[in-house]
Design brief:
Elements (H helix, E strand, L loop, with lengths): L6 E5 L11 H5 L35 E6 H4 L5 E3 L8 E3 L1 H10 L5 E3 L16 E5 L36 H11 L3 E3 L6 E3 L1 H19 L6 E2 L5 E3 H4 L3 H7 L4 E6 L2 E9 L4 H11 L8 E10 L14 E11 L2 H22 L5 E4 L11 E9 L4 E12 L1 H5 L4 E2 L5 E2 L2 E8 L1 H10 L16 E5 L7 H17 L4 E3 L7 H10 L4 E5 L1 H6 L1 E6 L5 E5 L3 H25 L1 E4 L6 H6 L3 E6 L5 H19 L15 E6 L20 E6 L3
């Protein structure tokens, strides 16, 4: 946008380098025009969803549309978003032009000269936890979407069009919908978990629920009501202030107004703790350790993202009360270790355990511990799960007190902790590829799919007894398996279908395999094939699944570790963020909230200036501002005399920063 020349919607090839200094001349305006990126809300769409189709929302005709001549003259379709970032529409160039003409926005055709393809810049050098050095970013490779759905192909018809490196948001939306994990509900931010994703959640639930019930934790499951009174919710000022913008209220019953609004739980401290006050009388009643599997509602103002940021989500929330602070801390760290195990041992996602700063801790609590993950495709960090020491604050508010060993009344020390279906989204983003889902074996609803290779000369009936033998071997090893014996689809179609759904292993069974007493085993994670005998197949497949988990974890760890850098001066901080890094810095104090706020604001301002933007949408779920992720529990050495990278004061710890979901 230029204040004098107006607003322009320019669409170019994905790999086209646009020289902003030459663009005004191509658009036919003054060469010294000050063109800057502008807020897409002028076209009624959110960031990441701008496309030529947005011109339909420009009823006043204030926007001029321009198209890259290479796109217009290409024999390939133009793939863009249809006013939303989780969908992609493919149309012939002449149809796009016809659409724009039909909505009274005939496009300017811009000839940039030459072709959009250019030699890629030098590849990035790996950076582990080393001093930061600026790196040149590679241009994403052009998406070869034309070949994905060739007419007459035996591939699954609805293939992934967007690429993980080209358009991460669109790719993610395609993966979770085309793999049949998610369906969009009628209310924004509310999603339907289809059996394929709920099956993943069931495996997470099964593992964690078993762990917390074992000694020494011995947590018991329970269930508390969905609703909370206004008075109970507002009893703890800091707590309610932290959740107030997200609380959903029930104000009517039929056509009758309620005497007092009732809140739908954003979390259950205020519902459970009045009951704790009734149940806990003596120190002999401690510890009390409860957990519930339920849903909560947080009416997010930011743009929702399936699994990661939704208005209703599934989770478990644990709540405990202890006689001493040491016992409460022991519980907090024991649960944090279980959350690490969920991510690393179940989902094959590496995480960084740590403690939140004072500014980022749970509202009303004493301190918060966390496991933080990294999404290489977007360069963003994401909070995986949290375990809080609530101190005695909630006990004071809700009059929870017990008679101590000496007969003196004492307030218990409390904890709360939760893991949500966000974990599924993290898993999808970390492991999946342009073919679709890649599921870790321990959570895959189907770990092995058996595909019979049948023909007119070898019908299914001739293979059935051998397939039954294969299935028996797998079931005997407690492997979740499925035989895809549908007769209306070819083996090739089935291969692609189950690859898109992320099944870890495929067993191909044909007449030659049956005659040899073996099966062809194909791995989803890397496409490696190997023939294995049916005798002892269950044990061999179990070993194969374990190896797949190791490969997935190693790959994700390498991607994460290559983006963890150490920075000791502000001059390197924002450039490191712009290179999609997690940044370890020497920090003055986790309690210095004022300095932390200043880092957030200054990093946002510098990033906006580099992008030529005036402001960012406050509803965005992925701000440009840096955020403290945690003070990692595994601290690198901090040499004596090290200064804080921002304030210059003596550093007390290393703090991990990043841009976060």
């Amino acid at each position: 946008k230029d204040k004098k020349a107006g607003t322009f919607l320019v669409t170019v090839a994905a790999d086209r380098h646009v020289d902003m200094k030459k663009l005004p001349t191509l658009l036919g305006i003054k060469a010294n025009a000050n063109l800057r990126l502008t807020d897409p809300s002028i076209l009624g769409v959110e960031k990441g969803a701008v496309s030529p189709y947005a011109a339909i929302n420009d009823a006043k005709g204030v926007v001029t549309v321009a198209l890259d001549s290479e796109l217009v003259n290409s024999a390939q379709n133009i793939n863009t978003h249809p006013l939303r970032s989780d969908r992609t529409v493919s149309a012939a160039p002449q149809d796009v032009v016809a659409f724009l003409e039909a909505v009274q926005h005939p496009p300017k055709i811009l000839d940039f000269g030459g072709t959009s393809s250019a030699p890629p810049p030098p590849p990035k050098a790996k950076v582990a936890a080393k001093p930061y050095k600026k790196q040149e970013k590679q241009q994403p490779k052009p998406q070869k979407t034309q070949s994905r759905n060739k007419k007459g192909s035996k591939e699954t018809l609805d293939r992934i069009v967007a690429s993980k490196t080209g358009d991460f948001a669109a790719w993610y939306g395609e993966v979770i919908t085309k793999s049949e994990m998610i369906e969009y509900g009628k209310i924004s931010g509310c999603y339907i978990l289809r059996p394929w994703s709920f099956g993943v959640w069931e495996q997470i639930q099964k593992a964690l629920d078993g762990w917390i019930k074992e000694e020494p934790l011995e947590v018991q499951n329970c269930y508390f009501p969905l609703f909370v009174t206004k008075g109970a919710l507002e009893a703890e000022e800091d707590h309610v202030e932290g959740f107030a913008p997200e609380v959903a209220w029930v104000t009517k019953s039929g056509e009758t107004d309620l005497a007092e609004p009732i809140a739908i739980r954003p979390t259950s401290e205020t519902i459970m703790y009045p009951e704790f006050a009734k149940w806990l009388r003596s120190h002999r009643d401690l510890p009390l350790k409860l957990n519930q599997w339920c849903s909560v509602v947080r009416w997010e103002f930011k743009y929702p993202t399936p699994f990661l940021r939704s208005r209703e989500f599934l989770w478990q929330e644990g709540h405990t009360a202890h006689y001493t602070l040491a016992e409460a801390d022991e519980m907090v760290y024991a649960i944090l270790e279980l959350y690490r195990r969920v991510y690393e041992e179940i989902l094959a996602v590496p995480v960084i355990p740590g403690t939140k700063t004072e500014a980022e801790k749970f509202a009303g609590g004493l301190r918060t511990t966390t496991v933080e993950a990294y999404i290489a495709g977007s360069g963003r960090a994401i909070q995986g799960a949290t375990s809080h020491n609530l101190g005695q604050n909630f006990g004071k508010i809700y009059n929870i007190a017990v008679e101590g060993e000496g007969g003196k009344k004492t307030i218990p020390w409390q904890t709360s902790w939760g893991l949500t279906t966000r974990s599924i989204g993290v898993m999808v983003m970390v492991h999946s590829d342009d073919q679709g889902l890649v599921l870790p074996p321990k959570v895959a609803p189907v770990q092995v799919v058996v595909v019979p290779i049948v023909s007119k000369t070898c019908p299914l009936s001739e293979l059935q007894s051998f397939i039954d033998q294969v299935k028996k071997e797998l079931k005997g090893a407690s492997i979740r398996c499925k035989v895809d014996d549908r007769g209306n689809q070819s083996p090739g179609w089935k291969y692609n279908h189950w690859e898109q759904k992320g099944v870890p292993l495929r067993l191909e069974v044909g007449p030659r395999d049956a005659a040899a007493g073996s099966v062809m085993v194909v791995r989803r994670v890397d496409g490696v094939k190997a023939s294995k005998p049916v005798a002892g197949l269950g044990s061999a497949i179990r070993n194969e699944l374990d190896d797949i988990h190791r490969v997935m974890f190693a790959k994700a760890s390498a991607a994460r570790d290559s983006k963890v850098v150490q920075v000791t001066s502000w001059s390197d901080f924002v450039p490191a963020l712009n290179d999609d890094c997690l940044v370890l810095t020497p920090w003055c104090s986790p309690k210095n909230q004022e300095a932390e706020d200043q880092v957030k604001e200054r990093s946002r301002e510098e990033s906006l200036a580099l992008l030529g933007l005036e402001a960012e949408d406050e509803r965005t779920a992925t701000s440009l501002a840096a955020k403290t992720l945690c003070v990692p529990h595994d601290q690198p050495p901090l040499p004596a005399g090290t200064k804080c990278f921002f304030t210059g004061e003596p550093a007390t710890c290393w703090c991990l920063w990043g841009r976060s979901y």
